[in-house]
Amino acid sequence: MTFYDIALLLAAGLAAGGMNALAGGGTFFSFPALLAAGLPPVTANATNAVALWPASLAGAWAARSALRPLAGYLLPLLLAGLLGGLLGGLLLLAGGDAVFRLLIPWLLLLATGLFAASPWLSRALAARRREASEHPPHSPLSLASHGLVSIYGGYFGAGMGILQLAAFSIEGHAFVRANALKNLISAVIYSVATATFIIAGRVSWPELAVLLAGATVGGYAGGALSKVLPVRWLRLFVILVGSVLTGYYFIQTYA
């Protein structure tokens, strides 16, 4: 790595960690920075996924109390997350850099759209949220939808949490429980994807170390600033960044 690469990844890590703590959307900063640092697309995505892994574990651990009453209800969801995350990671590795490079602008477009629509989606789902004494039963359709989201998470992952939160809310879970379920299944997906990428040797450790250092500091700073900065303007900034990057990669890939 050059000094420029180190500075770029530190700045991207700071931005990603801070934005995830404030409004979400950190991948829009970390993933393009890894590409700009010269990593091949699959390696950049794998390294970014490993960088997100510790935060997913922390989120799952913090939400454990809300999940204790669910018991056996979790097993099909955990299996869907495990198999979907593994399949997504294997599809990324099997397709290779050439296929993933063609999909990057479309994936960024999807992630930007999900991020932009999340406030409206949350309001639309609010009427469906309820605290239920019994958790809603699984159906083949709901498990299939969670499996597809898990595959997407193992393959790319940006915006995965928004999809999961919507799915759990539609099924009838109140927000606190839906968020706890999202955190747990995300941790499973990132764990199996991380293991897949490490075993395949597609993680670039020097870039990962720099990115994690920046993200740790950025996350702390973002938490401290969360009571001061207006989240609305931060969200607009992330949407602007996502839109610019989407346009850039469409031009770079297809022009």
For the largest beta-sheet, the strand count, sense and barrel status come to: none
Query: What structural category do the secondary elements indicate?
Result: mainly alpha
Instruction: Please provide the count of β strands.
Output: 0
Counting DSSP H or I runs of 4 or more residues, the number of helices is 9
Q: Categorize the overall geometry.
A: globular
**Mean of pLDDT:** 83
Q: Compute the CA-based radius of gyration.
A: 18 Å
Strand % is under 5%
The helical percent reads over 70%
Order of helices and strands: HHHHHHHHH
Low-confidence stretches: none
Count of folded domains: 1
Task: For the record, give the distance between the C-alpha atoms at the N and C termini, rounded to a whole number.
Answer: 29 Å
Account of the protein in words:
The chain is an all-alpha fold. It has one domain (3-254). Helix content is 79%, strand content 0%. It contains 9 helices and no strands. The mean pLDDT is 83.
Write the layout of secondary structure elements.
Blueprint: H1 3-22, H2 27-36, H3 41-62, H4 74-126, H5 140-155, H6 160-170, H7 175-199, H8 205-225, H9 231-254
Short descriptors:
single chain; 255 residues; mainly alpha
Summarize the structure.
The chain has helices at 3-22, 27-36, 41-62, 74-126, 140-155, 160-170, 175-199, 205-225, 231-254. The protein is mostly helical and 255 residues long. It has one domain (3-254).
